[in-house]
């Protein structure tokens, strides 16, 4: 039994790395959101420096608050959509577990961790807690959270992989 477990771990160590990435994103995201809920009043702004604020906002919609005033149906629509995408990514990562596509798998893991982090909020609260506000040339960029940042970085990695790294990249 012990030998079989060691063999399984050895053959699946990259998959375990991807699972660890997902778990760490979810834990850090939920921890940061709980700190915001407990310590920052809704819509309060705490300046960090001249271009970053910590705030507490509730986003009932998707990215950039799209659908935020849709009447409530978006909570379950966005939750089901995120869950379906997450399940697809889990199967994709499992299929990639023994392949040499580490960059693609890390990008997928980042997207998966962020999606799960936000769907937890959406199901529990009915909205997503956003708390990082960045100013670009003096204008506020829509507030976001660790899960959103993870999804964005993961998506950029997926694009870079598709364009330049994967065997069937656009430029091959």
UniProtKB/TrEMBL annotation:
Task: List the GO terms this entry assigns under cellular component, sorted alphabetically.
Answer: membrane
Q: Which UniProt keywords apply?
A: Cell membrane, Hydrolase, Membrane, Protease, Transmembrane, Transmembrane helix
Q: Transmembrane helix: is it a keyword of this entry?
A: yes
Note the InterPro entries from the entry: Peptidase_A8
Looking up Pfam families in the UniProt record yields: Peptidase_A8
Care to name a GO molecular-function term for this sequence?
aspartic-type endopeptidase activity
GO biological process entries: proteolysis
User: Which residue ranges traverse the bilayer?
Assistant: 12-32, 76-94, 101-120, 146-165
NCBIfam families, A to Z: lspA
Q: What is this protein called?
A: Lipoprotein signal peptidase
Which species does the entry assign this protein to? marine metagenome
